[in-house]
Design a protein that fits this description.
- By secondary structure, the chain is an alpha/beta fold.
- The chain folds into 2 domains: about 1-180, Ribosomal Protein S5, domain 2; about 190-425, 3-Layer(aba) Sandwich (Rossmann fold), CATH 3.40.50.
- About 35% of the residues lie in helices and about 20% in strands.
- The protein has 17 helices and 18 strands.
- A 5-stranded parallel sheet has the order 11-14-17-10-18. Strands 1-2-4-3 form a 4-stranded mixed sheet. Strands 5-8-9 form a 3-stranded parallel sheet, with helices on both faces.
- The longest helix is centred in the N-terminal third of the chain and has 16 residues, at about 40-55.
Amino acid sequence: MLINIHCAKCIGIDAVPVEVEIDIATGIGIHLVGLADAAIKESLLRIVTSLQAMGFRIPGRKIVINLAPADMHKKGSGYDLPIALGIIAASGQRELPLLDRFLIMGELGLDGSVREVPGALPTVELAAQKRLKGCILPRSSALEAYEYGKTDVYGVETMEEALDILSGEVERKDLLVKTFRPTGQKDEKVLTGIMDFSEIIGQEGAKRGLEIAAAGGHNVLLIGPPGSGKSSLAKAMAGILPKMDFEESFLTSKVYSVAGKGNPLGGLMKQRPFRSPHYSASIAALLGGGSDNIMPGEISLAHNGILFIDEFCEAPKKVLEVLRAPMEDRKVTISRLKAKVEYPADFMLVAATNPCPCGYYGEKDRCTCTPSKRIAYMSKLSGPIMDRIDIQLWMHPIDPKKLVERRPAEPSSVIAARVLKAREIHTPA
């Protein structure tokens, strides 16, 4: 008996259809074909063990499992659940009349539990485009899509729950992800460690510059000696950006979903991302990469948010230069021999650097660097990179008297209101 099951594979931030075909015929052995990677080939032992743990038998016949289309590489453990369900249906151990009406993904544990898989949002979007009845995903993955209302999304924790849905005998509306909206949500600013401008004493000029940058979406370079507050101001800048609209939130959430970093609280991301990779990060870490499965890098994870790079001049010149095209095109295209993927990369770059190797140029006579050292240090930033950074802010240490006085500073909420008003003015109706 031939069984077809709808699955998906993520290419970039979009999912493409994959069909799992299972046939049981005369013979012996389990045969898996369709350009599967090692994780999928290893899944056979997991699937057999989990089926036996759930009380199902393994047919003593030839089981052929085909992942179509056969010329496309498949990767990951998300095909465990559909393969197991297909074996149950093909062997006639359970009647599953709704099996071909759902898109199903999930990793199996040895006890029949279902574990999370990446790419839930693109998968649900594909199920809606194919006009399927719904999508069955692990509960923790399905939480990412509880705000997506174009198709039914079921979140399951065990294979038995998936069988209940597909049998049609029991109406499991309690498993619809919209019925168990996640609870216990906390303040996102606390979760992401965003500072408030009121916590930063002084630096009014730099604060004003960052406010202008936030209002216009400009890239910023902060130049100043150690201890002048560059990193603190950059972190606080995330708190004055306006919240994302639905389209921005959905696109950003898709990037994080594909990367396996979906919102831990469930639903779409509301807070704009703030990514701060170390300056020693590789080119692949910034742009994204991989062989068969090309993953998004830091610049894509910062989409619609802030990419903060501290010690900017300490980064290798090759790493800095790869930021040229994404800063101009607002996207990154990663090409490999057998694959080409495009990820969005519309971010604000906030970079911080010292003015010289010792860090104290311009602070009276504290600098010990020669003029040639200072020129060589700042010359790491090429003309094209500097041309893409609209605002450059020179900062100086705070007067100790201001630190002692601790006069109340303007909170981020007040600045954020001005930024939002400014954006509403220059946004076309």
